[in-house]
Amino acid sequence: MIFSVFDMMKTIISVKFSILFLFCCLSYNHLSAQTVPSFDYQERYYVSFSGGYAFGVSAGDQGGNFLGQAVPANLMSNNRGTLGTGIPLNLRLGYYLTNNISLDLGVQYFSGARSQVQTVMLPNNLNMIQAEAFTEQLRINPSISFYVPIITNMLDAYSRLGLMVPVAGAAFIDAKGSAMAIDNAPALPGVNFERMERISGNFGMGFTGALGLEYALKPRLGLFAEVEAMHLNITRNQGEFTKFRFVDGDGNEVQDLRSVLPTSLLETNYVEALGENSNNLLSNPTGFNPERPMDMPTSTSFYHHLSTQVGLKFRF
């Protein structure tokens, strides 16, 4: 049986989370089987700062459909790529329930790397349409951690399980190409288009798991390094072109298309399915209103990643 790359990545992620869960269970059983020592320090609270780099592990639809003079004619295709690659920056405030178990609430700012998600070759030796996807997100990450001493009061191994909940941010599709791709007017040779689409999503909740080592630099200061896996899907909700213009060869604006195009070509309302009452020419040709956002079928974007991170923890 032949598996797709997507199926392989899903299997790998499932195995990694299974291993993390098993490690946590074994750690808990080990700690429960022994007498948990009393705190050898007064500082039960802690704050940590960390950052690193995340590698996206699966690709999905990213929106920003193209409809224009491409090959084949009137090409319409979903952008595909991963939004999981980028830089995570974390701030955590936590509390030690025991020397071996802690709870914390993390805040993560994720700055996504640009990923080329679509390239369309145009006829007549025109330039290609190129589209890049990236994301900027603010996330909340409540979690529980289990610590196993390796060298007493010096080096601990730990595992962490938690939820990842985006609370702000969006995905973006940055596209550019020949103006002839979207308007075949005789006056447009040598003119290009530029557009940026902002895509917001419905509420989503993901899962995280990490394995790491923490080294005590001082009684209240620790240095840690970890590998984290995250699984997060977000379904598209609304899209809007925040930039859509024609520019000349020097990048100077020739025309701002947002001032002349109808709302249906600038804003998108993503729905589960198109029906006879949807604002879409295909499903509702007689009731379509060009001055309302276009209804389009939604899809899911993938933010799954594996990351390596380092940070500092202060106890107080």
UniProtKB/TrEMBL annotation:
Listed InterPro entries: OMP/PagP_B-barrel
Highest taxon above the source species: Bacteria
Protein name: Outer membrane protein beta-barrel domain-containing protein
Organism: Cecembia lonarensis (strain CCUG 58316 / KCTC 22772 / LW9)
